[in-house]
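Milestone 3.1: sequence recovery, worked example.
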């Protein structure tokens, strides 16, 4: 498949940097320069690159959701951004069909307002949040994460949201809470494939408590400076950049704290193929294919080389210690 990339190599700016007069002028100059064929020189200027990225990366499809630059270590990769068209047009969201194009086609029926998220289980302060309140619970940050799907493709997406840890701290888990389960919506009236046998519904995922507390684990309310498109998991989803994409449950309605390792949807459907941890690991193959390399969506021209998959998806420095001493072949 040939997918066109709009933002060729431009670094995406924090969407909190609203177009200033300076940026605006630089952008106009850049456009003029491009028209006169001097674009190469202009590209050498960082400000020019930012201005261009601003121009191209804001899709303008959904209401704006700006985020400040994230202070979290490792939260912003400099990899080239995936084009918004691909990030919102090539999805896994089985409630809306199993073809990659299905979610964008079918998720329009998802009703995201009103929306509540219940926090329950082993916590001192169980709560039911309206999505608007959850959105304001902590400062929105923009984080540019790689997302590596278990199927062998990857994307680079500027997410907007905050650390799951911010919510966890508010609800005060009990000492007995060892895992956090994320339960997503299963509404057969608005999700046409919820009745299908492909998975057990609702789609659920879970993290060990220390994984969920890691600052890189994120509750995302938006991407590309805007509120989340429905096909990407509106109004909120999980993003855990060092794990395979399927750990990132979409359209979450319940967060439950437990003392036992929860069963997750993919683990239930094929336990020999999808373990609880699902850390990106090029040395542990899926039983039916290698995980050593990946195809970056948007780079799949005829001669495009596959990329080597990195341990923990390149986040080893940040998260490696969570798994110190564990046999990752056994706990895959
Ligand atoms: N969440 C729900 N509710 N349903 C799903 O089918 N698919 C998962 C995950 N979250 C899925 C889900 C899988 S397999 C992947 S790879 C990612 O979402 C894809 O996220 P993206 O479409 O934003 O790239």
């Amino acid at each position: 498949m040939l997918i066109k990339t709009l933002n060729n190599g431009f670094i995406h700016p924090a969407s909190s940097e609203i177009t200033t007069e300076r940026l605006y002028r630089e952008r106009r100059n850049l456009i003029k320069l491009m028209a006169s064929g001097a674009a190469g020189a202009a590209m050498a200027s960082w400000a020019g690159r930012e201005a261009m990225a601003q121009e191209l990366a804001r899709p303008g499809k959904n209401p704006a959701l700006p985020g400040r630059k994230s202070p979290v270590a490792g939260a912003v990769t400099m990899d080239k951004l995936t084009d918004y068209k691909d990030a919102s047009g090539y999805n896994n969201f089985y409630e809306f069909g199993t073809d990659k194009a299905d979610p964008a086609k079918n998720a329009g029926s998802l009703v995201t307002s009103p929306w509540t998220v219940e926090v329950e289980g082993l916590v001192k302060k169980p709560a039911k949040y309206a999505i608007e309140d959850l959105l304001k619970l902590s400062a929105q940050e923009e984080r540019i994460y790689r997302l590596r799907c278990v199927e062998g493709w990857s994307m680079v997406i500027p997410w907007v949201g905050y650390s799951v840890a911010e919510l966890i701290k508010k609800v005060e888990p009990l000492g007995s809470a060892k895992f956090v389960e994320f339960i997503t919506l299963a509404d057969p009236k608005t999700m046409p494939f919820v009745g299908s046998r492909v998975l057990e519904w609702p789609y659920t995922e879970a993290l060990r408590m220390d994984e969920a507390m890691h600052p890189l684990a994120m509750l995302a309310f938006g991407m590309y400076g805007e509120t989340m498109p429905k096909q990407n998991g509106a109004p909120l989803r999980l993003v855990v950049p060092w794990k395979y994409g399927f750990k990132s449950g979409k359209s979450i309605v319940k967060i439950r704290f437990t003392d036992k390792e929860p069963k997750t949807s993919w683990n239930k459907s094929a336990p020999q193929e999808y373990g609880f941890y699902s850390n990106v690991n090029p040395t542990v193959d899926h039983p039916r294919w290698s995980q050593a390399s990946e195809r970056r969506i948007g780079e799949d021209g005829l001669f495009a080389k596959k990329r080597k998959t990195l341990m923990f998806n390149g986040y080893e420095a940040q998260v490696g210690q969570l798994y110190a001493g564990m046999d990752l072949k056994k706990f895959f």
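The pocket of MTE is lined by residues 91-95, 147, 149, 184, 203, 232, 245-246, 248-251 (CB under 6 Å). The domain at 66-323 is CATH 3.90.420.10 (Sulfite Oxidase; Chain A, domain 2).
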